[in-house]
Design goal:
single chain; 274 residues; alpha+beta; six-stranded antiparallel sheet; two-stranded antiparallel ribbon; 8 strands; 56% helix; 18% strand
């Protein structure tokens, strides 16, 4: 093989020696061929065709571009979500400060209601990533040995008034242990979630976050979703930040209810009214 290559090289050298102008022509043809190869490759890539280089490197433009677009869109959505969460948390902090510092007893109930009307829908909007996915958001508080809805969206009027959860439920577990409960599929085997017998909708994902300060727990922030795997670890963190702020509001509500009921001469039962 080496001898053959040597003979070919020798033949080319002798030919170039006899015809000196052949070398620049050959070089020009090689350069021209390379330029044509690049042009054809770019043209095929623009058409979305698969291009193979020397059988070693294969470029699939459609797949590459689509993946890059998906990666960019994902990063862009994450940034948007973080910005929305920061705005929501900032506004919640401002509203809680206003209700604590500037509200009279008579204005308290109305002002409190406006905070929840702003916050709860905002949580559902910020956490929604899948088209067509719907969320219910609720704050559960203790009533004797059960939990009831203190404030919520996505529930029927009857549900908000009459729904009671046992301490064995997902929200009850979060309330009694002070731990976050999260499930991407509440219908999977071994799951703590139990479908309520009067439920009119089926939800697949659920996060329950205790509203607490230290070991003192006042309630549970619960968010569910119709689709499986609706929430991420980041979502758990976001809900924890919101729950920490909600503790201040719930604690102040308890204090104000005692003040209001005392002024009316009523009895205090230690629970929050909705």
């Amino acid at each position: 093989m080496d001898k053959i290559a040597e003979e070919i090289g020798k033949g080319i050298s002798e030919a170039i020696g006899k015809v000196p102008w052949a070398l620049p022509i050959i070089a020009a043809l090689v350069i021209l061929g390379f330029i044509l190869f690049i042009i054809m490759t770019i043209w095929r890539l623009k058409k979305g065709s698969e291009v193979s280089i020397a059988g070693v490197l294969t470029i699939k433009p459609n797949e590459t571009v689509e993946q890059l677009k998906k990666d960019f869109e994902s990063l862009n959505e994450d940034d948007k979500q973080k910005t929305q969460i920061l705005k929501l948390l900032n506004q919640l902090t401002i509203e809680i400060a206003n209700v604590i510092c500037n509200t009279t007893n008579e204005e308290f109930l109305e002002t409190r209601r406006s905070i929840y009307e702003y916050l709860l829908p905002g949580i559902g909007i910020v956490l929604t990533k899948q088209k067509g996915n719907n969320h219910r958001v609720a704050i559960f508080v203790q009533e004797v040995d059960t939990l009831r809805i203190h404030q919520g969206i996505g529930y029927s009027t009857e549900g908000k008034r009459n729904l009671r959860l046992s301490m064995d439920s997902s929200a009850g577990h979060s309330f009694t242990t002070g731990e976050i409960y999260s499930s991407g599929d509440v219908l999977s085997s071994g799951n703590r979630f139990k479908t309520h017998p009067k439920a009119t909708k089926q939800y697949r994902s659920l996060i329950c976050v205790p509203i607490k300060c230290g070991n003192h727990i006042l309630g549970v922030l619960s968010v569910d979703g119709e689709e499986p795997n609706s929430f991420t670890k980041d979502d758990e963190d976001y809900l924890t930040y919101l729950a920490n702020s909600l503790y201040i509001l719930l604690h102040f509500e308890m204090f104000m209810e005692i003040v209001i009921e005392s002024g009316k001469g009523g009895e205090i039962d230690g629970t929050l009214s909705s």
